[in-house]
């Protein structure tokens, strides 16, 4: 695994703040039963945040017909909806929620060419709420496969997420399993799949970015 290049500043800031707090604890707090537990807690936070922003090295399983997971997380919603941002037709929506313990690097779900990419500002309600899909800050990307199928996915900010990174731009050729960005802190991925897609996951399933197949198209 490697640290995501977009998070060097964030991780460095966490390390610097933690080091400053540990210095204050060691210099000005004489009670060992206060300073040592707090120091160990700060060291744990540094380790957790380093892990949180890592990019895993996994074998790609997606293709131009197999939609692989964009991120780690848990499937929280599957239903047929009308997608009006770009597709303008009914689609199978699969929602995957990422909590604080999931790696937050994101990966292209399918091989093809980016036909649409746009950032949408919005709210920061908790990402597992149904309305978050339309009202939260998000980045929307559509990939068209060589067969003409289109897969739309949204990177949604959550209650604590404050930055979405996506490398998508129209005309970009992408390959399933390669990194497409990262979302910092709790968030969600919504997939909008062709109505005739065969979904391979169910609500409650834990998925792994790159490794888990979400659907066949």
CATH topology of the largest domain: Glucose Permease (Domain IIA)
Domain count, please report it. 2
CATH architecture descriptor text of the largest domain: Distorted Sandwich
- Main sheet: which strands, in order across? 11-7-8-9-13-5-4-15
- Outline the low-pLDDT stretches: none
Order of helices and strands: EHHEEEEEEHEEEEEEEEE
What is Rg?
Answer: 19 Å
* Main beta-sheet annotation: 8 strands, antiparallel
Task: Quote the beta fraction.
Answer: 35-45%
Gap between N and C termini, in Å? 30 Å
CATH class (first level) name of the largest domain: Mainly Beta
Number of helices: 3
Structural class: alpha+beta
Report the mean per-residue pLDDT as an integer: 91
Shape: elongated
Amount of helix: 10-25%
Number of strands: 16
Provide structural commentary.
The protein has three helices and 16 strands. The protein has helices at residues 8-28, 32-52, 132-135; strands at residues 2-3, 54-55, 66-68, 73-83, 89-98, 105-107, 112-120, 138-144, 150-157, 164-166, 173-174, 179-183, 187-193, 198-199, 206-207, 213-216. The strands form four sheets. Strands 11-7-8-9-13-5-4-15 form an eight-stranded antiparallel β-sheet, with no helix packed on it. A three-stranded antiparallel β-sheet has the order 3-16-14, with no helix packed on it. With 217 residues, it is an alpha+beta fold. A hairpin with a 5-residue loop joins strand 8 (138-144) and strand 9 (150-157). It is 21% helix and 37% strand.
């Amino acid at each position: 695994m490697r640290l995501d290049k977009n998070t060097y500043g964030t991780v460095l800031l966490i390390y610097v703040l933690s080091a400053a707090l540990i210095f204050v604890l060691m210099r000005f707090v004489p009670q060992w039963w206060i300073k040592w537990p707090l120091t160990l807690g700060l060291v744990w936070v540094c380790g957790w945040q380093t892990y949180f922003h890592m990019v895993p090295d996994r074998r790609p399983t997606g293709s131009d017909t197999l939609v692989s997971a964009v991120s780690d997380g848990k499937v929280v919603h599957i239903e047929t909806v009308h997608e009006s941002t770009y597709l303008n037709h009914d689609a199978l929506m699969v929602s995957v929620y990422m909590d604080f313990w999931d790696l937050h690097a994101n990966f292209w779900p399918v091989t093809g060419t980016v036909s649409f990419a746009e950032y949408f500002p919005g709210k920061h309600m908790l990402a597992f709420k149904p309305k978050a899909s339309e009202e939260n800050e998000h980045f929307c990307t559509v990939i068209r496969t060589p067969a003409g199928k289109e897969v739309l996915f949204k990177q949604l900010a959550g209650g604590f997420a404050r930055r979405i990174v996506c490398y998508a731009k129209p005309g970009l050729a992408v390959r399933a399993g390669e990194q497409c960005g990262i979302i910092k802190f709790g968030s969600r991925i919504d997939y909008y799949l062709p109505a005739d897609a065969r979904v391979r996951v169910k609500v409650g399933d834990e998925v792994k970015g790159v490794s888990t197949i979400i659907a066949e198209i």
